[in-house]
C-alpha cells in the first residue's frame, strides 16, 4: 500500500509539473508575442485569449444541447405516434399503456395455454381413437382368418360402420386440429409481435428516461456553466469598457496637450523669432524674418559664421532659442509618435472590443435562449406540480365525496329501512290493536250482558227468597216441630256457609289484586306523562333542527355570494395582469428601440472616431509639411497664413469633433440612464405583478380557507344531523319499547280479564249453589251484593283504563305519524342541502371543464317527470329554475353512475334508484338482469 501511495504521489507531482510547465510555456509564448505592448494590455489580451478558447467550447455545448433537444422532439413524435403519450409529462398514460400491453400479453398467454391444453387433449383423443382403430382392425383380421360363420359377417359389417364413424370423427378432429394449429400460430405471432413491441417500447422508454435525465443534468450543468461564463464575460466586458474609457481619457488629454503645443508653436515662438530677426538683420520685409526664424541647423551654423563680426548678443539669443525650439520639436515628435502608437493600440483594442461585442451578443443570445428554455422548463415543472396538486386535491375530494355519498346513502337507507319497518310495525300494531280492541269490546259486551242477566236473576232470586222467607216465617210456627228434624240439615248448611265465606275471602283477594292493578295503571299513566314530555322535547329538537337547516341554507347562500365575489375579484386581477403584461410588452419594445438608438449612436461614434483618425492623419501630414517648410525656408508669409488658417480650421474641426464626441457620450449616458429608468420601471412592474400575484394567491388562500371552513361547518352540521338522527332513533326505539310494554300490559289485562271471567264463572257456580241451597242468610246476600258491586267498580275502572290506553295509543300513533312526516321533510331538506353543496363544489372545482356541460346538456324526461311528481307529491311548489333542475339531474346522474360503477353497492343503491325512477319490482328485476 505504501508503495502504491508513493507511486501515486509521484505521478501526481509529475502531472502537476507538466501542467505548470505548459502554463509557463503558454505564458512565455504570449509574452514573446505581446512583449512590445504594456503590461495591462498584455493581461487583457491573455483574458481575450482565454475567452477565445472558451467560445468554441460554448458553441459545441450549445450544438450538443440543440441536437439533444431535436432527438427529444423526434422521440416525442415517435411516442405520440405509437403510444397515447402526447408529451413527456404524461408518464401515467405511458405506464397505463404498458400495463394494458402486459395485461394483453397475459391474456394471450392464457389463451395460448388454453389452446395448447385443448390441442394436447385432442391429440390424446386421436391417439386413443387410433389405438381403438388398430385394435378393431386386428380383431377384424382375426375374424376373417377364423372364417367365423354368418355372425362374423354381421360383426364385420358392424365394425365397418364403426370404422367409418371413427374415420369421420378422425377427419373432423384433424380439421379442428389444423384450425387450432393455425390459431395457435397466429396467436403466437401476435404474442411475439406484442412482446417485441413491448420490449422496444420499454427500451425506448428507459432510453428516453435516461436521456431525459442526462439531458436535464447536462442542461443544468451547461446552464450553470453558461451563467458563470456570462458573469465572467460581463465582468471582462466591464473591465474592457473601463480600460477603453481610460484610454479615451488618455487620448483626450494627449490631444489637448498636442493642441496646446500647436497653439504655442503658432502663436508664441514664431512671432518671437520673427521680431528678433527683424531687429538683428534690419530688413523691412516680414518674409526674411520668417525665413530666418524658421531656418535649419546647418543654415544657422552658416549664419553664425557670417554674422559673428556683426552683432554678438543677438546671435547668442538666437542660438539659445533655436536650441529650445529643437528640444521642443523633439518632444513634439515624441508626443506625436506616442499618439500614433496609442491610436494604433486604440484601433486594435477597438477591433477586439467589437469582436468581443459580437461574441458577447452571441453568448447573450445563447444565454437568452438558455434562459428562455430554463424559464419554459420551470414553467412546465410548475404547471406539472400544479396539475399534480390539482389531481391530488380532486382525488381527495372525490374520495371524500364518495365517502360522504356512501355514508349518506347508508344513513338514508338505514333511515328508510327503519321507517319502512316502523310503518309495518305500526300497521301491524294498529291491525292487532284494532282486532284486540274489537275482541275485547265484544267480550266486554258479552260480560255486561251476562252481568245484567246475572243481576236480574239474582234480583229475582232475592225476591223469591224474600217471599219464601215470609212464607217460612208464616210457616215457622207450623214447622217448630219439624226444626228438630231440620237441625241436621242446618249443620250441613253451616258447612255451606263456611265454604261461601272462603269464597268471599277469595273475592277479597281478587279485589286486592285489582287494587294493585289500579296502582300499576296509575304508574303507567305517569309514564305516559313522561312520554308526553319526551315527545315535547322531541318536538323542540325537531324545531331546532329545522332552524339549523334554515341557518345552513343561509350560510350556503352567503358562501355562494362570497364565491361569486371571489370569482369577480379573480377576473379583475386577471384583467390587471393582462394590462400589466401589455405594459411590460410596450416597455420591452421601448427598450428595444432604445437599444437600436444606442447601436446607431455607437455607429455614429465609430464614424466620428474614423473622422478623428483622418483628421489626425491630416494633422500629421500638415506637421510634416510644416517641418519641410521650416527646413526649406522658401515658403512665403502668405503660405504661412494659409497654413495657420488651415491649422485653425483643423483645430475648429477637432473642437467640433470633440464636441460631437462629448455630445454623443452625453446622448449615450442619457440613453443609458433612460435604459436604467426603463429597467427600473420594468422591475417595478414585475414587482407589481408579483405583488398582485401574491395578493391573488392570498385571496385564493383566503377563499380556500373559507371553503375549508365551510366544509368544516358542513361536516359539523352533518355530525349534528347524525347526532340528532341518532337521538331521534333512540327516542323512536324508546317509544317502540314503551309500545311493547303497553302491549305486554294489554296482554296482562287480557289474562286478567280471563281470570275475571273464570271468577265470574265461579261466582255463577256459587250463585247456582246458592240457588240450590236456598239459604236464608241475608248476610251472605249482602256480602255477595258488595262483592258484585266491587267487581262492577273494578270492571268500570278497568274499562276507563282501557279507554285511556286507547287514547294514549291514538296519541302515540299521531305523534309517530308526525315524526315520520318530519323525518321525511328533514331527509328531503338534507338531500337538497347535499345537492346544493355538491353543485357548489362542482362549480368551484370544474368550471374550466366541459364534461359537466356535455353530460348535463340532454336531460331525461323521465327524471324531470319524476322530479315534478315528487314535488307535487310533497306539496311543494313546482316553480323551479334551470339550475335546480340541473342540480337534480346531476344528483340522479351521480346515483345512476354510482349504481352502474360500484357492483358492491348495488344492493344499497337499488331502493334509491327505484324511488328516483319510480320502478316496480318487475322493472327492478329487468334492470338487474340487463346489468348482469
From TrEMBL:
Q: Which UniProt keywords apply?
A: Coiled coil, Cytoplasm, Membrane
Q: What is this protein called?
A: LADA_0H11826g1_1
Basic residues compositional bias, start-end = 297-307
Record SMART domains: Grip (SM00755)
Q: Does the keyword Metal-binding apply?
A: no
Tell me, what's a Pfam family for it?
GRIP
Q: What residue ranges carry the coiled-coil annotation?
A: 112-236, 325-517, 556-674, 700-752
Q: Which InterPro entries is this protein grouped with?
A: Golgi-autophagy_related (IPR051952), GRIP_dom (IPR000237)
Domain GRIP stretches? 882-930
- What is the organism field in this record? Lachancea dasiensis
Q: Name one GO cellular component term.
A: Golgi apparatus
- Indicate where this protein resides in the cell: Cytoplasm; Endomembrane system
- Is Cytoplasm among the key words of this record? yes
Q: State the residue spans of region: Disordered.
A: 276-322, 834-858
